[in-house]
TrEMBL record:
The keyword Nucleotide-binding applies. It comes from Chytriomyces confervae. PROSITE patterns: G_ALPHA. Residues 105-150 are annotated as: Disordered. One of its GO terms (biological process) is adenylate cyclase-modulating G protein-coupled receptor signaling pathway. This is Uncharacterized protein.
């Protein structure tokens, strides 16, 4: 009997110890949960960063995911091809228009020297129109962020050639216009396992290689084109092959606008990260506020290459200006006073490429430095940091969200920042 009582009390003590242990573990688990919000305007790369976290710290993608992403990628391909063709009409560029054959001297006007020569040279790829300069020409007045429609000898030549075709009353003829008709008549998307028919793939290829379409592509800031256009259309044969199954890199390059808030959980070095990815377009932002409670850290995404682009949502607001205004409201939000704040100045690969063709000062007249990466990136980082009213510590990283190696390094640093600032916050 005595033995029995003692066995019971031993069992009870053990059970109580288990409960204590369980409680402690639960307490520890809650203590060690980090709520991380990915914020930023549309198309800045939030979902791409989430995909990277999934690849680096999660389970990655299984074949079922890849089959679904294939549908997305093929839709991206069709969307890009159709968008380019519609833009040919808007910008008045005829098929087969070749900027390199234009006699620039015939299309000059007195304003050609003002400020935009670097842009003009590279967008046209024509090489000689830099000579159009006349230092006495009046300087263009630049309003911050205002869209600059390309007005140079090449654009004029293209418009005139386009107008001549219209005046002739005859439709454009030839293989490119025939291919364009096939692309424009193609369905927007294809189902799971369904390939894009070969005649449509061939038509997209012809359209994409046309010099007029390539010129139109270089002027993509004048209309809305998703960033994965070149990466997919340059790789058509592989992507449109019926056996195509997307690689991780293809998934990272693909584009779907986020319309619901998605929470994904990861365990990183024993700590649970609850990562929330939101839609960045204006219509999506009203869904954000309910998720602002108890947020430990925010990664705010900026597309640093977007300084010459207008918002998808309206045709007058510059994307960088939109991004700055949104950041001002987030970083000075009373609920985020103690939240670790990290800015990702993202799309640095596209930023570098854009600097070759587009002057920052054409869109941000307060920028007086050389049109290079170091000075340009520092300028935009400083502009964002200057919006911080409370002198709160804000960390800035320059990122290339589609590059897993670079993001892996950045995320390791970010994890340390988040953990450190939350230890400080907890008084530890
Ligand atoms: N080249 C390049 N492309 C990028 C980079 N970051 C994102 N992208 C591409 O940009 C496009 C938009 O990225 P998303 O991650 O969908 O943007 P988002 O911020 O989630 O957009 P919303 O869901 O509309 O708010 C995708 O095609 C990405 O592959 C980058 O650093 N470099
Ligand atoms: Mg998204």
């Amino acid at each position: 009997m005595g033995n029995c009582a003692s066995a019971e009390s031993v069992a009870a003590a053990a059970a109580s110890k288990d409960i204590d242990k369980q409680l402690k573990m639960e307490q520890k688990a809650t203590e060690q949960t980090i709520k991380l919000l990915l914020l930023g305007a549309g198309e800045t790369g939030k979902s791409t960063v989430l995909k990277q976290i999934k690849l680096i710290h999660g389970t990655g993608y299984v074949d079922e995911d890849r089959v679904a992403y294939r549908v997305t990628i093929l839709t991206n391909v069709i969307t890009c091809a159709k968008t380019l063709l519609n833009a040919m009409e808007i910008l008045k560029i005829p098929y087969s228009f070749d900027p390199s054959t234009v006699d620039v001297s015939q299309f000059q006007s007195p304003g050609d020297a003002s400020g935009g020569d670097a842009t003009v040279d590279s967008k046209s790829d024509a090489g000689s129109e830099g000579e159009a300069g006349d230092d006495d020409a009046p300087k263009k007045e630049v309003v911050e962020g205002q869209l600059q429609k390309t007005e140079d000898p090449i654009a004029r030549a293209s418009q005139q050639a386009y107008q001549n075709i219209l005046n002739s009353g005859e439709p454009q003829k030839g293989p490119v216009s025939e291919a364009a008709a096939v692309v424009l008549a193609s369905p927007m998307g294809f189902g799971v396992g369904e390939p894009i028919p070969k005649n449509i793939v061939d038509a997209i290829d012809i359209v994409w290689k046309d010099p007029g379409v390539q010129y139109c592509y270089r002027r993509a800031n004048e209309y809305q084109l998703i960033d994965c256009c070149a990466v997919f259309l340059n790789d058509l044969a592989r992507i449109c092959d019926p056996s195509f199954l997307p690689l991780d890199q293809d998934i990272l390059n693909s584009r779907v606008m986020t319309t619901t808030i998605i929470e994904t959980r990861f365990k990183i070095e024993g700590i649970i990260f609850r990562v929330f990815d939101v839609g960045g377009q204006r219509s999506e932002r009203k869904k954000w506020a309910p998720y602002f409670d108890d947020i430990n850290a925010i990664i705010y995404l900026v597309a640093i290459n977007s300084y010459d682009q207008i918002c998808f949502e309206d045709d007058s607001t510059n994307r960088m200006v939109e991004s700055m205004n949104l950041f001002a409201s987030i970083c000075n939000h009373p609920m985020f006073k103690k939240t670790a704040m990290i800015i990702f100045m993202n799309k640095i690969d596209l930023f570098r490429a854009k600097l070759e063709t587009t002057l920052i000062s054409d869109y941000f007249p307060t920028y007086e430095g050389p049109n290079d990466y170091d000075n340009g990136s520092e300028y935009f980082a400083t502009r964002f940091l200057s919006l911080n009213k409370y002198e709160k510590k804000i960390y800035v990283h320059f990122t290339w969200a589609t590059d897993t190696k670079q993001i892996k390094t950045v995320l390791a640093i970010v994890n340390q920042i988040i953990l450190r600032s939350n230890l400080v916050e907890a008084g530890l």
